[in-house]
Amino acid sequence: METMKKKRRTNSERRRTSRSRSPDKTGPSPINALDDGCLMHILSFLNPIPDRYNTALVCHRWRDLACHPRLWLRVEESPVKGFCGDGVFPDLKTAVLAAKPGDTILIAAGGSHVACDIQIKKPLCLVGGGALPDDTILTCARGSDSAFEFLSTCKVMNLTVRAELGCCFLHRSGRLIIEGCILQCEDNPLDYLCFPIVSTASNTNALSTVVKGQGDSVSVAHTRIEGGAKAVLTSGTLEVQRVRVIYSRASLLFWFDVEKMEKD
């Protein structure tokens, strides 16, 4: 009998010891043990929208890191006229000039944003800060050839771009990715001059036929296109391929690529 009691005490002590050594599942996550610089570096690999945007909802620390100027440049109107904080710019053209290759520019929802003949020669990501693309509207006024002229690999997401006369995006070279946007051109007697997307790229990169994603191309996904003689005008060697359209009551959503036709 004594032997059985000793065994029970020994087993219960072992269980208590193992429980005390096991990690506390309700404790803080191991990722929060990282310092701010390391955690911010990890967040930089996330897609700006929605992944990095959603990380700001985790806690106050993650919000500060996810919104740090190192990860975003922001275009928004300052409550104090002429004053802008670190990483905040009053207009899109200034933000593009200040950006470094690989930066993401978050454009605030609402307000009036002007985009006229903004030339981009470095890899950038332009993201609308609203819940929907029509929450962030960029306007290209008459007298401008385009809202943006791209000469490098860039990504544009969650934006509405309106061109009064001309084109929304002028693609010269590089890989342009357009996702979840609305491209609008005015319907008027000169609509043959208005095209949401114009590409003049010649795809002279010899690696483009060997390595996927190299060379010049345009990829459009989940984008609404309104007005203009046609959605895309190409004057280089690129062609529209793999077109897919989803019809809804209010609009048509497009998926397509503009790239060089591969020879058999």
From TrEMBL:
It comes from the Eukaryota. PANTHER family: PROTEIN NESSUN DORMA (PTHR14695:SF4), SHC SH2-DOMAIN BINDING PROTEIN 1-RELATED (PTHR14695). CDD domains: F-box_AtSKIP5-like. Residues 34-75 form the F-box domain. This is F-box protein SKIP5. Residues 1-32 are annotated as: Disordered. SUPFAM superfamilies: F-box domain, Pectin lyase-like.
